[in-house]
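To: structure subgroup
Subject: Chain for Friday's discussion

All,

I'm putting the inputs and outputs inline so they're searchable in the archive.
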Amino acid sequence: QSFDGFGYAAAFAKDKQGIAFEVTAPQAGAYSLEWRYAAGAGAASRSVWIDGKAGGAAQTFAPTANWDTWASVKTSVELPQGKSSVELRFDARKGSSGALNLDRLSVPAP
């Protein structure tokens, strides 16, 4: 299955590169972030940031068969009520590695 929509964020494999999404939580609490990605060059990892603060352990992304194969992985985070910025960032100090294409972020209701 191909990527959704009109495109995706490609590679971002250099320090401090990332992509941010604005999400709205109806109430404060634990949420599951679902990342849809391709990692055709091998496993990758990125840091998750919530409103400009590191959100815990690095998120790992298992390798996919190629760049046209998409997979999903989930991250558990605490979100405040209302709007938040959720960023997936390459952060060398936190062990980020590998190339990654990111198709979308989904935040299902808790």
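Points worth raising on Friday:
The first strand starts at residue 18 and ends at 25.
The mean pLDDT is 92.

D.
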